[in-house]
Write a structure and sequence with these properties.
alpha+beta; 5-stranded antiparallel beta sheet; 13 helices; globular
């Protein structure tokens, strides 16, 4: 098996606190989260187990190419790949600016068009941690929020904490169980240092959340988890679709989802 650490890197090492021992710790943590042995990761990344062992122990200084190869084998998101690069002493490869930055202008415009055309049905723009970045009129009305709340409210908090949204969900255990399963999986993918993991920890302080089953809801004949709203004595049923952006080269762009509600 050939080790390809002599392939020219696409960037240069930065001057900073990143060290190969820090990189080794991250690699071990990610291997544990993915359920991979050192041999398993070496096979997936097509490097020798000995070379990987040297990288994890800090005995070998990997190239940027090798770091990215390992990140790919671990199926890391762009934000997590940046963290691995920084730990190895390289500059981040992918942008991480916030939602309102100039860099995200085209993404905001495309999302706004989807939200606008979906009115009067609710539609939300969420980041990986379920922060509501944008919403159309239907969604704001449903949440009982104004536009000034965007970027400061979290969908999981609205669903799991006492309040207007939670009270309106007629089949709360089913919906909350699905969202909790999705949140757990997202936290596993993003890692214990992520904002997603912090949201999961916050949600699990809700006694009812801890009592929910760890598996996805549903059963034989189930196609979609329904969402039932009961507002002012009127009951409506919905299902949702999730839209993502294709071929992202920016960490936030990769994490953005647009959730649209459709009446049943």
């Amino acid at each position: 098996m050939r080790d390809i650490d002599d392939v020219p890197a696409r960037g240069h090492r930065k001057n900073g606190p990143g060290t190969t021992s820090e990189l080794g710790t991250l690699l071990k943590d990610w291997r544990a989260l993915r359920g991979k042995s050192q041999l398993g990761l070496a096979l997936d990344a097509e490097v020798s187990p000995r070379h990987l062992a040297f990288i994890e122990s800090g005995r070998t200084t990997p190239s940027q190419y090798m770091v990215m190869r390992l990140a790919g084998a671990l199926m890391l998101g762009l934000r997590e790949r940046n963290a691995l690069l920084v730990a190895a002493g390289f500059a981040p490869e992918f942008g991480e600016c916030d939602w309102n930055s100039e860099e995200m202008k085209e993404i905001r415009q495309a999302a706004a068009m989807i939200l606008r055309t979906h009115d009067p049905y609710p539609a939300l723009v969420l980041d990986a941690a379920s922060t509501v970045l944008d919403a159309n009129t239907g969604a704001l009305t449903l949440m009982g929020q104004g536009r000034d709340a965007l970027g400061r409210i979290n969908l999981m908090d609205l669903v799991f904490s006492p309040g207007r949204v939670r009270a309106a969900i007629g089949n709360w255990p089913e919906v909350a169980g699905f969202l909790l399963s999705r949140l757990r999986e997202n936290a596993r993918l993003r890692g214990p240092r992520s904002e997603v993991a912090r949201v999961l920890e916050r949600v699990l302080t809700c006694p009812e959340a801890r009592a929910l089953p760890a598996t996805m809801p549903g059963g034989a004949g189930s196609v979609l988890v329904p969402l039932t709203f009961e507002v002012d004595g009127v009951t409506t049923q919905w299902f949702t679709t999730v839209t993502t952006f294709g071929a992202p080269l920016h960490a936030l762009a990769e994490e953005i989802t647009i959730e649209q509600f459709y009446p049943r």
